[in-house]
From TrEMBL:
The keyword DNA-binding does not apply. Residues 307-386 form the Histidine kinase/HSP90-like ATPase domain. This is histidine kinase. It comes from the Bacteria.
Length: 408
């Protein structure tokens, strides 16, 4: 039993492991079976008498088995050759072995031929059935013989054809199901990737908007406190503030790296934007559709807290102009006046200007700008610049140096 199992395994995996090997083995087996049937006297099917010595049937049988070798790559040509050999075998009286060859070739043509060839094959099979009716009646004038001949033709041609088409449809349905499963799997992968990207983006926004903002506020307040003149005897407190500021700045840098990892498409996330980026801020507003003019005079060296507050006030003001006066005009002025840093953003051509009190959603940005300015000892004002309420103005003044006692 062990030897038989090994032989069976070798037959299935090695001999019949490829399409070419299966074609060869099927042709050999069909030829061997046909020769056995000829030797058994199963020939002369259409001659009306058994033909036990008709070994001439082996010639079309062997040639038909050779035609079976091309049934997969050239099914129509193989069937055409098999049909000619089958006709020659019928002329010799017919044999079951050649009938098996024809069955296999019709089945293979229905399974492997192109759609157009299959349609022609179906039409040819029905034409041959109809022709057998006509020829049978013309030759015999016997209804029973005619019906029997037509039935034989129908069975010989349409049975393997129907079988091959059924297997073909099952394969096509299996391929469609496999393709649909692949599409569903790809769609699920895309949705999972989108969900992961959305979650990572949400985490990045939370880190940037909430955590980074709070850490930045810690750094600002610490820097504001350090801007005070040193107090004798408070060296330890000042050193602690410096450590707090250094740790906050380091945390901001590390948090920026985390945000960039979470959002591969994120641009640089600056922990403390300065006024040297004012040109890029104005360029972004112009890209958003605003007509912006910038008047920025020379500025002295400013504390980081003042620069960041100034930048954020200008950024929020321009953002409000983009939001509430799209396509409008904005005039940005930055300079020094009376020993203070003066900021001004005037906007027009919009019912709300840069976020007036009559515009839905206005208020939080104004409050944020006011808190930034006043936390450093500055002033902030926003309102209509004319009685016609067509021009909105945002103005802020910040100290050039953080006053003593601010941010302590």
């Amino acid at each position: 039993m062990g030897a038989l199992a090994v032989l069976r395994h070798l037959w299935v995996t090695r001999v019949r492991g490829t399409d070419r090997a299966r074609d060869v083995s099927d042709a050999v087996l069909t030829g061997a079976a046909g020769l056995v049937l000829v030797a058994a006297g199963l020939s002369g099917l259409w001659s009306g008498r058994p033909d036990g010595s008709g070994w001439w049937h082996a010639v079309p049988l062997v040639l038909g088995c050779l035609a079976m070798l091309g049934r997969r790559r050239r099914p129509v040509a193989a069937l055409s050759a098999g049909a000619v050999l089958f006709a020659a075998d019928v002329a010799l009286g017919g044999s079951i072995g050649m009938l098996l060859v024809l069955f296999d070739l019709v089945y293979s043509a229905a399974l492997h031929a192109g759609p157009t060839a299959v349609l022609r094959l179906r039409a040819a099979s029905w034409a041959l059935v109809s022709l057998s009716l006509v020829l049978g009646w013309t030759a015999t004038r016997d209804l029973r013989v005619t019906a029997f001949l037509a039935l034989q033709t129908f069975v010989v041609l349409t049975t393997p054809l129907w079988w091959g088409l059924a297997v073909r449809r099952e394969r096509e349905l299996a391929d469609l199901a496999r393709a649909r499963a692949d599409d569903l799997r790809d769609l699920a992968d895309l949705r999972a990737a989108e969900a992961r990207a959305e979650e990572r983006g949400r985490m990045a926004r939370d880190l940037h908007d909430a955590v980074a903002g709070n850490v930045s506020a810690v750094a600002l307040h610490a820097e504001a406190a350090l801007a005070r003149p040193p107090v004798p005897g408070a060296e330890r407190e000042r050193a602690a503030l410096e450590a707090v500021r250094a740790s906050a700045l380091t945390s901001l840098e590390e948090m920026r790296a985390m945000i960039l990892l979470l959002r591969a498409d994120a641009g640089p996330v600056a922990a403390a934007p300065r006024l040297d980026r004012l040109g890029a801020l104005v360029a972004g507003a112009r890209t958003a559709g605003l007509t912006v003019t910038l008047d920025a005079g020379p500025l002295p060296e400013l504390p980081a807290a003042v620069e960041q507050a100034a930048y954020r006030v200008l950024q929020e003001a321009l953002t409000n102009v983009v939001k509430h006066a799209p396509g409008g005009r904005a005039e940005v002025a930055v300079g020094t006046s009376g020993g203070r840093l003066a900021l001004r953003v005037d906007s027009a051509d919009g019912p709300g200007g840069s976020g007036g009190p009559d515009v839905p959603g206005a208020g939080l940005g104004l409050l944020t700008m006011r808190e930034r300015a006043e936390s450093l000892g500055g002033r902030f004002a926003a309102g209509w610049a004319d009685d016609a309420r067509t021009r909105w103005s945002v103005a802020a003044e910040l100290p050039l140096a953080v006053p003593a006692g601010v941010g302590a």
